[in-house]
UniProtKB/TrEMBL annotation:
Origin organism lineage: Eukaryota, Viridiplantae, Streptophyta, Embryophyta, Tracheophyta
InterPro entries listed in its UniProt record: Kinase-like_dom_sf
SUPFAM superfamilies assigned: Protein kinase-like (PK-like)
Protein name: Serine-threonine/tyrosine-protein kinase catalytic domain-containing protein
Length: 140
């Protein structure tokens, strides 16, 4: 919207851990249909309880899986669509340093093609009797 905010730095920070823990680039598409960007892919996997599938196999260690999940959730909080929902830098630091701190459930990431409501929207029905509009141009 053309307005700079500290939350843009938070967004940029959130992208980095997602790239690191996945070993994937943000410039490609992922998912079953390859229609999700990296942020959407992480969000969907976490939402469906399949977050461990997001991790780079070289990081796959059962003892650190919960730390990676926590890191993923914090990163997803940082990239939420609404900048006001993103945590402040101090909150991020607290969540990273305190393993018992509660972490909110992240909402849809910014720049998502899909919306959370896509699955719930019923088909649009056309209720108008008027099948055609007639426009008549009249010169001045």
């Amino acid at each position: 919207k053309g307005i700079y905010s500290m939350k843009y730095d938070v967004y940029s920070y959130g992208v980095l851990p997602l790239q690191i823990i996945s070993g994937k680039r943000t410039s490609r598409y992922y998912g079953r249909n390859e229609d999700l960007n990296l942020l959407e892919f992480a969000y969907e996997l976490r939402k469906n309880g399949e977050g461990t599938e997001f991790f780079d196999p070289s990081l796959d260690d059962s003892s650190s899986a919960w730390k990676l999940m926590r890191c993923m959730q914090i990163a997803l909080l940082c990239v939420q669509e609404n900048a006001a929902d993103r945590p402040a830098v101090l909150e991020i630091l607290t969540m990273l340093n305190n393993e018992t701190a509660n972490i909110k459930v992240p909402r849809k990431p910014a720049f998502s093609v899909k919306s959370d409501e896509d699955e719930c929207i019923p088909e649009v029905k056309i209720c108008s009797v008027n099948d055609a509009s007639i426009t008549q141009l009249i010169p001045r």
